[in-house]
Amino acid sequence: MGRLIRLDRTGHTTLAEWTAEDEASQRAAVSAFEAELERGMIGSASGGAGTAEVVRELPIDSDLVIMRRPIAGG
Amino acid sequence: MAAEPTLAAPGGGAGLDEAAALWWREDVSPASLRRDERRWTLWTAWIASVFVAPGLLLLYIEPLTAPVAAICFAHAWLIPWLQARRGADQLEPIGGARGPDAGRSSERAAIGLLGDLVGHRERELLHRSGLVLERSALGVWLIGQRGALLVRPGGRRVDCWCVRVGDASELPAADRAAHLLLGLREDELGFAKVGNLSFSGAPWRLRRRLGARAGKALGVARRLAADAG
């Protein structure tokens, strides 16, 4: 099962969950992901072994996709 | 099992958009980082010599100028000390000096997620120190709320970066650190490009300023970096 979450003031919010068999849940997750991109958030797909990757489309095969805000130098 | 750290974006993914937007800045590479580190060493040596030499000359010419010479020596010590302090200040642990704000539900949720993103040993260190340890191709990172510190392989040099979430006012502290951890994992060189290098030098110059919790974390990071070097 995949999970789309957003880092926010509550700690994090689960925006969508989907499974490989449930196309409706996938469509809802893609829609939520695109809405977050529109808001200026950045998608980060966490892989195994402590890796992460910037994604611009929702990777349906990913277990965890985190929406984060941009970072900047201080 | 942890993956072997590499400098390429995992899975061939895109680098940091934040780094790409900084078109006027030179891309960071292992070579450019070593060059910047040498510049820091030369600058520190220059500052020390530019104040120590006249102090010694004054003492040689006229010992009664000792108070003026002492001012020169104080400058030679103070300016590098201020730079080291600036670097250490970037590494603000989650929860600051009072320990993690575990009482707030948002902070608990944020720490829980951050703990899920790291391994078992790193999770223990996070709870003890309020800092996230991340091994990478460039060395061993310690990540706080609004900056990160990189211990280079061998453990004899530390680089401090000021880097933060653009709009973090409402975010729990652990979420700020999670943002930096994700950015680092997505593109290590891009992360270094986005951040401002605020200090580079020997770890002992930072240690006293870091405080007990962060100081212990630095010790752990140095041991890991020494093993890697």
Describe the structure.
The complex is a heterodimer of chains A (74) and B (229). Chain A is α+β, with helices and mostly antiparallel strands and 74 residues long. Chain A has one helix and six strands; from the N terminus they run ββαββββ. The termini of chain A are far apart. The model of chain A has no long low-confidence stretch (mean pLDDT 94). Chain B is 56% helix and 11% strand. Chain B has nine helices and five strands. Chain B has helices spanning 17-20, 30-61, 66-89, 105-117, 120-129, 173-186, 188-194, 204-210, 212-228, and strands at 132-135, 140-143, 148-151, 158-165, 196-201. In chain B, a hairpin with a 6-residue loop joins strand 3 and strand 4. In chain B, helix 3 (66-89) packs across helix 8 and helix 8 packs antiparallel against helix 9 (212-228). The model of chain B has no long low-confidence stretch (mean pLDDT 90). Chain A binds chain B through residues 5, 7-12, 42, 44-56, 66, 68-74, and chain B through 1-3, 9-11, 13-18, 90, 105-113, 117-119, 134, 146-147, 161-168, 170-172, 174-175, 178-180, 182-183, 185-187, 191, 194-196. Strand 6 (71-73) of chain A pairs antiparallel with strand 4 of chain B, so a sheet runs across the interface.
